[in-house]
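Notes from hallway chat w/ T.B., transcribed later so I don't forget. T.B. wanted the structure written out for a chain they're using in a teaching module, and asked if we could keep both sequence and structure tokens in one place. Agreed to drop them here.
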Amino acid sequence: MHSTPFVPRLSALALALTLAACASAPRGSHDAAPKREPSAATSRVGALSDPHRVVEATLDDLAARLRDGRLSSVQLTQAYLDRIAALDDDGPLLNAVIELNPDALLEADRLDAERKAGKLRGPLHGIPVLLKDNIDATPMANSAGSLALAAHKPKTDAPLVAALRAAGAVILGKTNLSEWANFRSSRSSSGWSGRGLLTRNPYALDRTACGSSSGSGVAIASSLAAVGVGTETDGSILCPSAMNGLVGLKPTVGLISRSGIIPISASQDTAGPMARSVADAARLLSALAAADAGGDEAARRADGHRLADYGAALDPGALQGARIGFLHNSGVRYQPELNAALERAIASLRKAGATVIEVEIPTAGQWDEAEYQVLLYEFKDGLERYLRDSQAPVRTLDELIAYNRAHAEQEMPLFGQELFESAAKMGPLSDAAYRQAAAKARRLAGPQGIDATLKRHQLDALVAPTTGPAFLVDPINGDHFGGAGYGAAAVSGYPSLTVPMGDVRGLPVGLAFLGPKWSEAKLLSYGYAFEQLTRARIAPRYLPSVSM
């Protein structure tokens, strides 16, 4: 468990000035004018025109309006582009979108024409989607937020992007992230990248958006797109989803193709949906899981476990009779208001008919060192393979380290690259040390961790606070992370889901659901039942700060 030293509160303006003084790198290609400081006023945000009612709109609502002709995909896409201009490039300056798809309106127009001709691809037909900027999507760059790859434009879509397009989605653009998915420095500031600078939390602009899928979290919370895609190695979907009031699902590793995604870990990496409701997350997962696996071993293990429609499994009565284990000692640092939100959440689970008992994962924390070694080995191996296969302008980790040193003013104004340097020293995946660490981490988190806990207490799922409320951004010392309840699922490669469970003084907090391999449908159904009973999500207000 981590401790948090006292950090003086920074106003949104002071924070922006601090970061602007430290970094001068340009943002994404959708910027038309130099950035000014974020506005401290929220009245302009509240007064934004929303003629097509995209704010907080669900996929079902948008699909219904597209279907009956009240809305076209071109109008919907333009409405999101207008919000990006008003909130991301102006107003609170969220910095959530790093690049726009220059063909987005053309894609929308083609999908409108298909609809008029009677061709309907599915529930995502004509719906704009944002992707994290570590996923190959033509004609845009794929940079992981690094200036070293700002001009790197892959020639083909990642399979998950091809699947989204086949399902009728409009690829609206790419979202900012913690650079290199937060695997560059041990004291990084989540949500910051050299290419995109700092993503700001829309609930309080001086607090973290978490990472590494910070841009996707902020963008979807702020209704800059209907739904978004994030990626996770350990918390990079769940943490930004929880801190931005979203539903986020990290599926079993292999359920969604990982090809065409800048990697950290073959053992733990996966893409996943980020949405404002469980139903929307389930709809997006259905499209993502349909991606061509492309021969990945983890994807082959998922054969026979994918569902065509995860939305069909949602049941508001799913918790009736379920046995749920509450991980009290999950590693999250508790505080009175978080405790109160958690107590209300557990009461809601019981009200929905679940039996909730307090349990512990007996091996909790014992995998930490092994996981760290695995990530160092797999990052070097996987990243260099991606750079080589995609014909990136840099091909090795050593070249990236040298690039950062040569461009330190833009790339390292806030933190260094200690993880890069450690990973560069690692040997091949044939090393006995790697194989032993990988087996140990998986065993302790999976069979001897989640599986053993479920079996011992005859449980259907585990729950824990996803993490605490968003902490203040500290550009000097880095993140003051308050712990997380999802670590076992990340290391084992098992699924985890976060659903809003309330707020702490206006800052969202989430409840994490963990289960065995391939239990996505069950977790989504439990999350849906919890969501329908609690309706705990609150929309962002773009405040400069909150008092704690």
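Follow-up for T.B.: Confidence is low (pLDDT under 50) at residues 1-36. Might be a good example for the class.
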